[in-house]
Amino acid sequence: MSRLESIDTTRLRWFVAVAEELHFARAARGLGISRQRLSGTVIELEEELGTRLFVPGAQPTQLTEDGRVLLGEARELIAAAAAAQPQATPAAADRLRVGFVPGVTVTKWERIWAERFPDIALELTPIPMKEQESALRAGAVDMCFVRLPIDREGLSAIPLYREVPVAVVPKDHPIAAFDQIATADLADERLQDASDLDDAAMTMELVAAVSGAAIVPHSIARLHHRKDLVYRTVTDAPETEVVLAWPVDRTTELVEEFVGVVRGRSARSSRSPSAQQAEPPKRKKPAPAKQPAAKSRQGAVKKPGKRRGR
Q1: Is the pLDDT assigned to residue 260 strictly greater than 80?
Q2: DSSP one-letter code for 7
Q3: pLDDT (mean) for 61-76
Q4: Where does residue 3 rank: exposed (0-12), middle (13-18), buried (19+ CB within 10 A)?
Q5: Cα(182)–Cα(6) distance, rounded to whole angstroms?
Q6: How buried is 68 (Cβ within 10 angstroms: 0-12 exposed, 13-18 middle, 19+ buried)?
Q7: 296: which DSSP letter?
Q8: pLDDT score of 207
Q9: Cα–Cα dist 63/20, whole Å
């Protein structure tokens, strides 16, 4: 029996948001609540469970060992609660299915969508990187946050951000003393194969067990952070790029609305399909009244002029 079964789902969601963001302020913004309220809830949760979920005073925020265990349990309980809740499956026209690969955080966009389109379900699905392209082409999702490169043929894609690479090393490694390193600093290190980001947890395990290093995108290092490992920016390694992609021939109004949400457009943006539908038709301005034609010189009435003195 999980220690979290007596905890309400809302507090579990808040804990998961902080654990995924590893930043209280960002998590609070994504949830639409104050940072103080979120921090107070986490403290109450720790007192109720009798354990620390986050390392006190750690910068950046870090999960404790117990916190990592409870994070997995919290996710399972949230998923079970959602599955047990009776609700009609929305029609395809009333939902949007969006996938996201490891390392991408979608909390903020989920919140904005719920506020803007409360009657249209947004189904967010974790997608392994090795399946990111096939999920789009097979129609498993309508859109997907993917990490390049992918075959762009037949796909629309908007760039979102680039991720700096970091080197993950044991906490007591000499590299840990620096804020930034170059690839030359890793020349004598045993580099673990980190090409399969879906298996990044095992890569981190290997680094911790047999030393060496692994180079991964920053978000992946954060996602699988461990107290016995540290990560440092690699200044001359290639960055990775995250984009939002979807099939060109399936560009629906909902797809365009989500693109607007991700790009930060307001609900009243002229580029939003819903805003265009809501805008009343513009009235045509009345044509200007015709001015009477100027009189000819013959028909003009002459004004009396001043007499000139003789």
Answers
A1: yes
A2: S
A3: 89
A4: middle
A5: 48
A6: middle
A7: P
A8: 94
A9: 10
Q: Output the six-digit token pair for 104.
A: 């991408």
pLDDT, tens only, 136-149: 999 999 999 999 99
Q: Give the H or E element holding residue 246.
A: strand 240-247
User: Which amino acid appears at position 67 of this protein?
Assistant: G
Q: Is 37 helix (H, G, I), strand (E, B) or coil?
A: helix
Candidates 275, 274, 279; CA nearest to 254 is 274
Is pLDDT at 78 greater than 90 in this prediction? Answer: no
Residue spans of alpha helices (H) in 163-250 = 200-210, 218-223
pLDDT band for position 296 (50/70/90)? very low
pLDDT at 31: 78
Task: Output the six-digit token pair for 225.
Answer: 């952070």
CA atoms within 13 A on the CB side of 220: 31
Say yes or no to pLDDT of 236 above 90: yes
What DSSP string describes 129-176?
A: GGGHHHHHHTTS-SEEEEES----TTEEEEEEEEE-EEEEEETTSGGG
Q: Please report which confidence band the pLDDT of residue 36 belongs to, taking 50, 70 and 90 as the band edges.
A: confident
